[in-house]
Structure formats: structure tokens, C-alpha cells
């Protein structure tokens, strides 16, 4: 029996420019560049999702440091990347499948 689980392979290369962007090269050779601010605004954690669900913005807040930068990042198993931001936020894990779907839909970003 086979299961069809939405899944994206981990990128072949992951390049984080801490003050600019995250660039991923996927297994099929495609390269996608995400501006950090885009990722921070679309942070997938429960807290940010909750804010967006209420029609509020997850980022920037009134006390958000400018410019935004990534302090650190960490691979989470084989399925995503956790980014620690300079505004102290560090609960968002960007899964490869979410990033891959955003990459396929640049207008949605
Ligand atoms: Zn968040």
C-alpha cells in the first residue's frame, strides 16, 4: 500500500545570507530566493498564523528591529529549517514542502 504524503525533498543547497535572503537549490536544479522579510511575514508558527487569521500582521510589529536579519538557522530533521530572527522570534519552522509550494507560486508571496 502506498501513501501519497505531500512531501518535498530537502534542497541540495541551502544558503542563508543573514541580512538578505534564503536561497535554496532544489533536487531538480531549480533555484529559489526568498527575501527574509517575506519569510518573516509568512512565518508558519502558531502565534503568527493566529495573528494573520485575525487580520493582523505577524511582522513587523511596533518594536521590530530594522533591518530584519536572521541570527541563526538550524535544520529540523530532514523536513525543514528553523530560523532565529533578530527580533527574538524563533518558533517558525519553514518546512521544505511549504517553501517548495511558495516557490511554485511567487505571486502568492
Ligand atoms: Zn511566527
List the main descriptive attributes of the protein structure presented here.
NE0471 N-terminal domain-like, 3-stranded antiparallel beta sheet, 3 helices, binds zinc ion
Describe this structure in words.
The protein is an alpha+beta fold. The chain has a single domain (13-108), classed as NE0471 N-terminal domain-like. The chain contains 3 helices and 6 strands; from the N terminus they run βββααβββα. The protein has helices at 36-41, 46-53, 96-104; strands at residues 13-17, 21-25, 31-35, 70-76, 80-85, 93-95. A 3-stranded antiparallel sheet has the order 1-2-3. It has a 3-stranded antiparallel sheet with strand order 4-5-6. The protein starts with 12 loop residues before the first strand and ends in a 5-residue tail after the last helix. Bound molecules: zinc ion (ZN).
Bound ligand species: zinc ion
**Overall morphology:** globular
Terminal-residue CA separation = 36 Å
Radius of gyration: 14 Å
DSSP E strands, number: 6
What would you say the CATH architecture is?
2-Layer Sandwich
The helical percent reads 10-25%
Compute the number of structural domains: 1
Which structural class fits the helix and strand makeup?
Answer: alpha+beta
> SSE string, helix = H, strand = E?
EEEHHEEEH
Q: What's the average pLDDT? A: 91
Amino acid at each position: 500500500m502506498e501513501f501519497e504524503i505531500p512531501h518535498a525533498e530537502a534542497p541540495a543547497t541551502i544558503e542563508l545570507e543573514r541580512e538578505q535572503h534564503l536561497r535554496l537549490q532544489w533536487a531538480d536544479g531549480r533555484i529559489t530566493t526568498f527575501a527574509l522579510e517575506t519569510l518573516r511575514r509568512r512565518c508558519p508558527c502558531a502565534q503568527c498564523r493566529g495573528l494573520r487569521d485575525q487580520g493582523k500582521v505577524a511582522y513587523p510589529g511596533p518594536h521590530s528591529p530594522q533591518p530584519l536579519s536572521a541570527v541563526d538557522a538550524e535544520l529540523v530533521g530532514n523536513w525543514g529549517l528553523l530560523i532565529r530572527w533578530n527580533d527574538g522570534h524563533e518558533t517558525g519552522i519553514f518546512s521544505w514542502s511549504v517553501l517548495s509550494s511558495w516557490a511554485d507560486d511567487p505571486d502568492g508571496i
